[in-house]
Amino acid sequence: MMKIMMPLIDRLSPSCDVITRKISESMDHPISFRDRFRIRFHILFCAFCKRYRRQLLAIRNMLEKSRDRLEDEDTTDTPVLSPEAKERIKHSLRKPEEN
């Protein structure tokens, strides 16, 4: 049975390189129904791409939580450099021939 299924699976499902690019793309903007189907079909048989998708989703969720937390924090207590300190830093970063 698997001998019959493998050529079909290979034809319906692109390589892992293509699938991982499509998974990444799907995180940034909507993808076509065909691409969504290919991803889902591929990850039924490929544990590596399934793990890759899970890891990307976990990273995305952590970043969203961090962003939300940072937006909720009060930023009025953020230290700010004085104009004099900024000038001293600029002066020290200039090329030696400008000093």
Biggest sheet character: none
Query: SS-based structural class?
Result: mainly alpha
Q: Tally the helices: what do you get? A: 5
Classify the helix fraction into a percent range: over 70%
Q: How would you explain this protein's 3D organization?
A:
The protein is mainly α. It has helices at 2-12, 16-28, 33-45, 47-72, 83-93. It has one domain (2-72). Helix 2 (16-28) packs parallel to helix 4 (47-72). The longest helix has 26 residues, at 47-72. The radius of gyration is 25 Å and the shape is elongated.
Structure described in brief:
This protein has 99 residues and is mainly α. It has helices at 2-12, 16-28, 33-45, 47-72, 83-93.
SSE layout:
Elements: H1 2-12, H2 16-28, H3 33-45, H4 47-72, H5 83-93
Helix pairs in contact: 2-3, 2-4, 3-4
Keywords:
single chain, 99 residues, mainly alpha, 5 helices
